[in-house]
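Objective 1b. Sequence-to-structure analysis of SH3 domain-containing protein.
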Amino acid sequence: MKNLLFTLICFSTVNLSAQGEFLPPKMEISDYSLSKFLTELTLAVGKQDKQFIVDHLDPHILNNFGGDGGIDEFKMQWNLEGDSTNLWEILENILLIGGPGHISSTYENSYTLPFTFSDWPEEYDAFEHYYVLGNNVNVRDKPTTENSEVIGQLSYQIVKISDIEENRISEETKWLHITTVDNSLSGFVYGKYLVSPIGYRMGLIKRNNGWMINMLVAGD
């Protein structure tokens, strides 16, 4: 969780090199109340503070696309009453990726992060593309760091999932075979550096008593 301390800095200006494919927005948030809440949320996730999360859930929170929603469903889905939950890992990843620098222009007083969902370019199919989150991420000729060669590097750009047998991240290897959108490079990238635009995202809404979490879902 120490990486979340770095996330607090990420709500200031972040300039990223997109190499022509995708330039992440500057994560400067003009709304002070939102910036303050994101800082508090980041600290709460770092401390695994269940009560803070529950206290800031919207009564009608969307938890999945098949349920009824609500706080009780959230608690059950994330096993908050149990001994273990992967909620903290999910929230940490969302916060580490970061959100856009703007409140939604479609829905007043709402905010969705990470930016890989909220600001994803429409010209790239969300089911066929991933985002390389990192600077100089190695692309290898084999899905391993042993006996493989680095054939290129990618920084903060969109890539296409290759239409071959290895076109999925396996639970065993965690590698994905990708191709750059200009077809100049094709190889394997380790899964921790790849973000799906339809992966987990969190929605926030501003109520009279402050910002609340009104969505935590994945998929489409």
